[in-house]
Design brief:
alpha/beta, Udp-n-acetylmuramoylalanyl-d-glutamate--2,6- Diaminopimelate Ligase, Chain: A, domain 1, 2 domains, 6-stranded mixed β-sheet, 10 helices
Length: about 260
Amino acid sequence: MLVKDLLRKIDGAIPFEWAEEWDNSGLLVGSPRSPVSGIALSLDPDLESLNFALAKGCSVLVSHHPLLFSPVRRIDTSFGAGECIAFAMKNDIAVIAVHTNWDSAPSGVNAVLAAALGLEELLPLVPSDRGARGMGAAGKLSSPVRCLELGQKIRETLNLSRLNFYGDPERPVERLALCGGSGAALWPEALNSGADAFFTSDVKYHERLEALGRGLNLFVADHGEAESFSLDALAETLSAASGREVLVYRPHRPYPLVFD
C-alpha cells in the first residue's frame, strides 16, 4: 500500500471535505507515492511522536493536530515545526493530519466524549453543511446531577489531571454541551442548545465572564488531555479503513504543578 492509497482509505472513512475551511488536514509532509510500512497515531506531530513512529518501523504518522497550520514564510530546522519537518523528510515519514474532519465526524471526538459521559439524544452545536455531524455536541444526562458531582464524573471518566469549574457547584445539570479542543467560542451555541453547563478547553477570560453572565456553568479541561481520550476510537477507525494495525503514541508527561 502506498501513502496515496492510505489517504484514499482515510478519506472514505473520515472525508477530508468534512474539515473546516480554516483547517489544514490531509498529507502535510511526504510523498503520496511512498510505501506504507506501518501507521503510527498521535495527538501532536512532535519529535517524540516521530521518533516513536521511526522506532516502530512506521513510515506514516497520522496526527490529530496539523504539523503545518498557518501559512509558512520560512522553515527553520533548528526547532519547532521546522525541526519536525526535517526529521520526517530525513527518515521518510509521511505526516497526515486528521483534524476537524475527525472533530465533526459522527464517531469523532465529540461523539466519543459524549458517549463516555452518558449523554443521550445528542445533537451538534453547529451542524455540518458538508455531510458530517458537526462541531460540538449537546445531550441529556440520564438524570439531573449537581455540577460538583458532574465535574468529578468528567474528570474520572476522561482521566484528566485537572478540571476547572466556574459557576454554581450546587446547580443541577440536566443537559450538558461539550466541544473537544478549543470550543470556547461556541458558548452561545451551547447556551442556545438549552445546556445548563458547557465542557470544553482554552476558555479566555472574557469568554468566561460572558458565559457565566448568561447563566452557563463551565467545565474547562486541558485541550490535549480531553482530545486524547478519542485516540483509541480514531485508531480503530483508521485500522478498519486501512486494514493495518495502528500504533498509538501517548506521551508520558508529568501532570502540571498547581500552586493552591
